[in-house]
């Protein structure tokens, strides 16, 4: 464990140096992610200028859901973004074979190869959204609530990671599963709004099959109990752990299948 | 025998990767339609109109806008790739106008996209979401012209953004930046009439509304009569201005390459 922490630090340090070489690009990356998020929030704001509530949720309450998703996603984007590139940067050019002979866990190596600068934009905007929403939401905030919120956000981030890892693993069989990863990731857009506005089938799907519901709506429902999901929301950390374990087991299977073809 | 099988298999795997992109795109579009549908149903649950727009018109607007937005842009990414990989220098020596060549490739891609992506999506949308058609043949004609002009404005703008790759390394960031600007100001998410006044004023001075908002408003009947022709005029103004800008900036950029290339 200590060895891996030190290794990660070394990887991160060298990566930071590269990042600072291209300062303008760093800024463009951060700004672009922030603007992207801002555009979709502004959309909700424009709609709310003309109405009072959606399905019982006010503007700031929706913002709160959104803020949890955005912050959770930043964990994924800063630390685990390299999973996206598994196919075209590792498997296709044969770089993964080289990783396999190193005395480091290959998953760790792929993940540690990159810290993604644009994720910082995501983190900043996520915190801004939460900071804007929380004072406007009718809630008493104590230490327990804050601890809970942090845990929910970490769980949300881990679910993003697990889902991406799971679908990136298909690359071992099809060289590059990026299109699948991308399509599945787009599903997380559903999670921005209260799940209760959707058809029951979609709600089930986002809870039990690809559990993006746990990245935003259920955690938010713990704090703002509009639809009776407060109890259910407590399963969020469990869902996160289960997802991570499943994804990791699947990753190991993929890796084994890959190594045995010997390509 | 074994190694040829491997080559063939590799090729097949690569091809599945491309068709996988097609299916991923289709699945994502269907999902976006679903989100749009349920979101607006929920918004209209407690009212019949918003700014005099009813649910049917709103859904029509949003869906057509989403589909049209898919055509705005595209050439810039190709250009940026060419620049990054140093292909431009070779391209420039070839006996054709590189700008026209790139636009031609882009038109080809868009026709494919229309057939493979948009038409199935339109069918799904009409079938399940019960959108409205324009009232008269004149409106349809106006919409088609306006949409084509809008797409070209988007293409020119995209080209201008692509040229930035000469100066920046983070092409991905610039692309997201551009996409957000367009999504935001073009009225792709929500009719610009719903914007707060100050923002509406700003958008009137920007080219983005001419890409999506004006054509789609003509289609869905938010803009009618002489206003529709006025809108077309505004679009033509942007079309010409941006084309001139493309030419000017491109010749500057070429000078830059010639200097680098010696």
UniProtKB/TrEMBL annotation, chain A:
The chain crosses the membrane at residues 26-48, 120-139, 146-166, 202-220, 232-251. It holds the Pfam family ABC2_membrane_6. It comes from Mesobacillus jeotgali. Keywords: Membrane, Transmembrane, Transmembrane helix. The keyword Transmembrane applies. It comes from the Bacteria. The keyword Transmembrane helix applies. This is ABC-2 family transporter protein.
From TrEMBL, chain B:
InterPro entries: ABC-2_transporter-like. Keywords: Membrane, Transmembrane, Transmembrane helix. The chain crosses the membrane at residues 20-40, 52-72, 111-128, 140-169, 181-199, 229-250. The keyword rRNA-binding does not apply. It holds the Pfam family ABC2_membrane_6. PANTHER family: SLR1174 PROTEIN, SLR1174 PROTEIN-RELATED. This is ABC-2 family transporter protein.
